[in-house]
Design brief:
The chain is 38% helix and 25% strand. The chain is an alpha/beta fold. The strands form two sheets. It has a six-stranded mixed sheet with strand order 6-7-8-3-9-10, sandwiched between helices. Strands 2-1-4-5 form a four-stranded antiparallel sheet, with helices on one face. β7, α6 and β8 (205-209) form a beta-alpha-beta unit. α3 packs across α4 (127-140), α4 (127-140) packs across α5 and α5 (156-168) runs parallel beside α6. The structure holds adenosine-5'-diphosphate and magnesium ion.
């Protein structure tokens, strides 16, 4: 395996500002194949922005992102993007899928059609093949039997599992999750985390923004704490959660455990 293939995702010196607000300040991150990275940090620390840069939903100002063998650097302001750069961005997108806090299902389509649509429209699969694939991945997230339902008739946990099935059916090499359980009632969080834990066990490479510290402690290979646009601390969960070095991380974790005291 060449050095270039060693990582599923690599961020080199990633900078991103919104006007005067510098949100990412030279982020360096390496994610290995099959690794599960949990990204934690306070509100506004740049977690979503970082995922959105990886998925090309945001541009960035400086630095480089590699997804597998495809690398793309910052777009030069005011310059036309080279077709080579544009191609690299699009090529990398084939390998990355993102699941959001809000499930973003199409309300007018059945569960089955929601999962089939990207397969027929983006991947251009024949309808029969798309349907088979969609049914396979709906089964995988425990939703066999719900194919003909509409999103509005499902619980939040079920809707999020449809969104996960829709992403999985694109067979990405990396899955990004941005607080996938934050919009759910507490009793529905577990079913979504179970699906994600199964994916981790199967070796899916994942970057997960989450406030579910128990889940992160169990499933993450690496926990990354973002504060004010820098990686303040990173390491295995045993180190980050049980023996944090950074005062800011200590403060963040203790606020979290006070807030969650008594919830179990
Ligand atoms: P987190 O996900 O950690 O809560 P975000 O990445 O969403 O943080 O936001 C980081 C900072 O960037 C915040 O100050 C937020 O207000 C700002 N921000 C995010 N998206 C935009 C945007 N599209 N336009 C302007 N500012 C933004
Ligand atoms: Mg966010």
């Amino acid at each position: 395996m060449s050095n270039k293939d060693t990582y599923a995702v690599q961020l080199h010196y990633l900078w991103k500002s919104f006007g005067d607000n510098t949100v990412l300040k030279g982020i360096d991150l390496k994610v290995k194949h099959k690794e599960v990275v949990c990204l934690i940090g306070g509100s506004g620390s740049g977690k979503s922005t970082m995922l959105r840069c990886i998925n090309s939903l945001e541009t960035f100002d400086e630095g480089k992102i590699s997804v597998g063998k495809e690398s793309f650097s910052a777009l030069e302001p005011g310059k036309k993007t080279s077709s080579r750069l544009q191609q690299a961005r699009f090529a990398s997108l084939k390998n990355v899928c993102m699941v959001f806090q809000q499930f973003n299902l199409w309300p007018h389509m059945t569960v089955l059609k929601n999962v089939m649509a990207p397969l027929t429209l983006v991947k251009k699969l024949p309808s029969k093949e798309a349907e088979e694939k969609a049914r396979f991945f709906l089964n995988k997230v425990g939703l066999s039997g719900k194919e003909d339902h509409y999103p509005a008739n499902l619980s939040g946990g079920q809707q999020q599992r449809v969104a996960i099935a829709r992403s999985l059916s694109m067979e990405p090499s990396i899955m990004l999750f941005d607080e996938p359980t934050s919009a759910l009632d507490p009793e529905l969080v577990g079913e979504v985390l179970t699906v994600m834990r199964d994916l981790a066990d199967e070796g899916m490479t994942m970057i997960i923004v989450t406030h579910e510290m128990g889940f992160a402690a169990q499933v993450a290979d690496k926990v990354v704490f973002l504060a004010d646009g820098i990686i303040e601390e990173e390491g295995p969960p045993s180190k980050v959660f049980e023996n944090p070095s950074s005062p800011r991380l200590k403060a963040f974790l203790s606020t979290w455990s006070e807030r969650n005291a008594g919830i179990n």
